[in-house]
Amino acid sequence: MENSTTTAKPVGAVLVVGSGIGGIQASLELAEAGFKVYLLDEKPAIGGVMAMLDKTFPTNDCSMCILSPKLVGCGRHQNIELLTNCELLALEGEAGNFRARIRRRPRYVLLDKCTGCLDCTKVCPVSVPDDYNQKLALRHATYKLYPQAIPNAVAIEKNTGRAPCRLACPAGVNAQGYVALIAQRKFLEAYELVRDRLPFPGICGRVCHHPCEEKCNRREYEGAVSIRTLKRFIADFATNAGPTPYKGRKTADPTRPKDAFQSERPEKVAVVGAGPAGLTCALDLRSLGYKVTVFEAADRPGGMMRWGIPGYRLPRAVLDREISDILETGIELKTGYAIRSSAELEELLKQGYRAVFLALGCQKSRTLDIAGMNLSGVLHGIEFLREVNAGKRPAIGRRVAVIGGGNVAVDVALCARRCGAEEVTMVCLECREEMPAHEWEIEQALAEGVKLEPSWGPQAIVGDNGVVTGLKIIECTRVFDEQGRFNPQFNTCNEGFISCDTVILAIGQAVDADGFSGFERGPGGTFKVD
After folding, report:
1. Residues of the chain below pLDDT 50
2. Which of the residues 30, 162, 215, 429 has the least number of beta carbons within 10 Å of its own beta carbon?
3. Which residues contact 94 (CB under 8 A, 6 or more apart)?
């Protein structure tokens, strides 16, 4: 009887870890034998170290002449699947039955659409050390590993962490990104990158206290990058370049159209307050396609940007332009429309608004419980600034005492000087080194003739015939206790007196929301949110 033998065909799959010349050759031979081969490498292209070499030993042949046909063979072979930008995390099982756990890092480029034309690499503004050339040269963050790389596509290298300047920014603005764009003279692109997170680049370029610069890595060398000033520059450049309407903001939903402002949803949302929070919320909602109405109690939008920041720090033309850009996305603004109670909120919901965003702002000054508060000539800082910014000239005396050591107190003191006060004295509990106002603001106040009286607390306001004549003060020896709580201590043996005609309190701000019930409240009358 004739023996018949049956040739068993290879079955299963093979994982080859490492795509150097050894891994490539093994993959080709296994694929030719009929196995399904997964060729894994942590780089965005296969080739390994041999792709970096000029000649091979001992024949002195061109390494790329040897490697290139094998690269093409791997890329075209139907039995080979390339797993680039991947790392092997775990391998379990036994011979013939392995399970591999693999992590694939994002390439940020669609392989089936990239043609390898490299046009994107020419416009990439970010340069990083080139590992392929042993970091002896720079390459762009958008790059192709080497000219003959397989897959024939670029990759984008992104910092897995966040730059300290961006982490320090309350708005999360990509300072590192727009500074890089400015370095490439792509000013409008930098402006749009800022507006993707912050709709007020011109305003913040002038009044932001720039915590990003405090965390800038360049402080360890020649000094921090002037991030805020650069933001102001690109905002002014965009203004001079002409209208810059919003084109839609990035969202987490990839299915949203590129110009999200052209897409309408049926839902309506009300925003109470046209300050920075309310306008930003309205813009975000518009980018998602919602119909938005902003209700503002004042006759003009802007909130504390308009009524709290003096015009010498923030030109009103800059403020009006950036607000106008936001409203032109299709946001309806109703000025002179105050919402001051929970009942009025319920009425908005009855009008068809699916949600209401409260952005009332801290537009009320805190006060003191000391003698003389009812005298003529006692003013409050926020209300004083509101009158000044409305174009009025508040009635103040020749000598003004400002209680407070923060930034608002500095603004009040400088506005008082501009309103005709000959002598302005700032009195605060903190010592000079602990004053909450920023150092550059304090220096500006000193340069304009404002006197500082740190480590003194107000004891009483003195008057004659119902009019302020002076301020009694007492030495403050400590503001905070050992637990960091506000608990000032005073030296009763050391008191003083400041002659003045006007006393202005600038000791903090609070939310004016007494008519709203049913909300849990926090410090300063703020609403607690989840």
Report:
1. 1-6, 250-252, 257-258
2. 162
3. none
